[in-house]
Design a protein that fits this description.
By secondary structure, the chain is an alpha/beta fold. It has one domain: TIM Barrel, CATH 3.20.20. It is about 30% helix and about 15% strand. The protein has a 9-stranded mixed beta sheet. Strand 5, helix 6 and strand 6 form a beta-alpha-beta unit.
Length: about 280
């Protein structure tokens, strides 16, 4: 599996998403607000179109889902199957990159193309790459996917703030830690598990990402006392966004929408390094 190679097998009649000059924002969104799936309310989820729309809206923090093709290409997609996004019953991980690129509809972007899109932005950006392993993948394969994504992410972001790698899969995070120990990691859970401390120590986690419905203010303080950041997903109501930022959450994942510019900047940095909020 060679996820660091250039995109193989480009389809002769299907060009990749264009990479025009980065759009200028009409406003500025607090950096603790993270464009979920690159801004799923602003364009097709996990697409460069959504990313550019989010940049225009003022987002500078992003989250997206990363899978691997059968020939090891890292690309953006949430589901195991292509049915919801592309009308195909095929499983994405069983297809070579050339076949995935040739699918009708919104072109699946590669991780490399996302990096180039963000690099074109004049402002610093931050990104959370969620490693999406297939639900039924055996642990060794999950670990291998984590390794491959981490290696490519480390290479692509070598000249910028490193991306945060997250996953529901402990095996994928183990692989990421082994391949690129310098990249920060976060564990995704719907609720705070009772064994979170042991996992955080074993994986040397930077953060936990929890469903907003399963988190509260006390968890922010509990995790902070353990040296961990807490981000919550997915919140689209402006009042709830302000609520979580005022509580001190390190970040809030949102699909984007009206009212975001009115949310206050949080006191806790979103990214893996301390940096000012927009």
């Amino acid at each position: 599996m060679n996820a660091t190679s250039a995109e193989p097998g480009a389809h002769p009649h299907r060009q990749g998403p264009a990479n025009p000059a980065a759009p200028q924002p009409t406003t500025r969104i607090p950096s603790a607000l993270i464009a979920h799936r690159l801004g799923a309310a602003l364009g097709p989820e996990n697409s460069l179109a959504a990313c550019r729309a989010a940049l225009r809206a003022g987002f500078r923090s992003f989250e997206c889902d990363i899978k691997l093709s059968a020939d090891g290409q890292a690309f953006l997609l949430h589901d195991d199957a292509l049915l919801r996004t592309h009308g195909s019953t095929l499983r994405a991980s069983t297809q070579p990159w050339a076949a995935l690129r040739a699918l009708p509809g919104e072109a699946l972007p590669s991780l490399r193309e996302l990096r180039e899109t963000l690099r074109a932005c004049a402002d610093p950006t931050w990104v959370n790459l969620e490693i999406k392993v297939d639900d039924d993948a055996p642990a060794p394969l999950q670990q291998a996917w984590g390794q491959a994504v981490a290696l490519l992410a480390a290479a692509l972001w070598s000249d910028a703030e490193p991306p945060l790698l997250s996953s529901f899969s402990i095996a994928a995070l183990q692989g990421a830690r082994h391949a690129a120990p310098g990249l920060p990691r976060a564990w995704l859970c719907e609720q705070l598990p009772p064994h979170w401390r042991g996992v955080a120590q074993a994986l040397e986690l930077r953060a936990l990402h929890l469903a907003a419905r399963g988190a509260d203010a006390a968890m922010i303080e509990t995790l902070r006392s353990a040296g961990l950041e807490l981000r919550v997903y997915t919140v689209n109501d402006p009042a709830q966004l302000r609520h979580w930022l005022e509580l001190g959450a390190s970040g809030v994942f949102t699909d984007g929408g009206p009212g975001l510019a009115d949310a206050p900047a949080a006191a806790t940095p979103t990214g893996s390094r301390t940096r000012p909020h927009a």
